[in-house]
Design goal:
The chain is of the alpha+beta class. 32% of the residues lie in helices and 25% in strands. The chain has helices at residues 20-24, 26-33, 38-59, 135-139, 142-149, 153-174, and strands at residues 5-10, 66-68, 70-72, 76-79, 86-88, 91-92, 95-102, 105-112, 120-126, 193-196, 209-215. The mean pLDDT is 89.
């Protein structure tokens, strides 16, 4: 089984230069323009550029040799969404990639020269964003809700966020996203799915973030 590289970066530290349109590709550039709030737009762009630089570092090439190649299992290639990928000098870059943003940070995961049909998904979540009234009924299976109720109250918020991160990571990996009902996906004990430990995340990150990684 491939062992993915994990990196996490503060979005405000990503340098946004004047060559953004070329680096992002037109689909992502057009999506960026649709953000109503400048801060949201900047975080989206920074996340995409962080992934570009991450891919270039994994391949040990200049980022200018890469062009974005996002593919959606439903919509096909050339999208502003879906599984991230890149073309290297006009041909597919030998990478499997995933990325997730939360609370001003981006978590990146990648494997170089993955085996055929290898897939991965990663998700980063803020604990405080998943505790709203009705969340458990919308997002958790019956067994997950029972398990959550069995642990001390002080630990429930973190576990709830971890469960959600696992679901998001798995749904990214299979290419379904939230088209699949998360309340029908049990992630308590699913092979190929695990929490990202604090040791795998950088020092200096804010408290209240959790992450998960899915591999297949």
């Amino acid at each position: 089984m491939e062992i993915p590289v994990l990196e996490m970066h503060r979005l405000s530290d990503v340098h946004l230069d004047a060559n953004l349109h070329v680096q992002l590709g037109d689909p992502a550039h057009q999506r960026a323009l649709r953000f109503a709030k400048p801060g949201d737009r900047e975080e989206f762009v920074a996340g995409r550029l962080a992934l570009l630089n991450f891919a270039a570092s994994l391949l040990d090439v200049n980022p200018n040799r890469l062009t974005s190649d996002y593919r959606c299992p439903q919509c096909g290639p050339g999208q502003d969404h879906g599984r991230p990928g890149f073309m290297l000098d006009g041909g597919p870059a030998p990478l499997a990639l995933s990325a997730s943003r939360a609370s001003g940070w981006v978590l990146l995961s990648g494997v170089v020269h993955p085996t055929e049909d290898f897939r991965l998904g990663v998700d980063l979540e803020a604990v405080g964003r998943v505790g709203f009234v009705g969340f458990d009924d919308l997002a958790l299976t019956g067994s997950e809700k029972r398990f959550l109720a069995s642990i001390p109250d002080r630990d429930q918020a973190t576990l709830r966020a971890r469960l959600w991160a696992r679901k998001e990571a798995w749904l990214k990996m299979i290419g379904e996203g939230l088209r699949h009902n998360p309340a029908e996906l049990d992630v308590l004990d699913r092979p190929g799915l695990r929490d990202v430990t604090e040791r795998e995340l950088p020092a200096g990150q804010p408290r209240g973030l959790v992450a998960a990684l899915a591999l297949d």
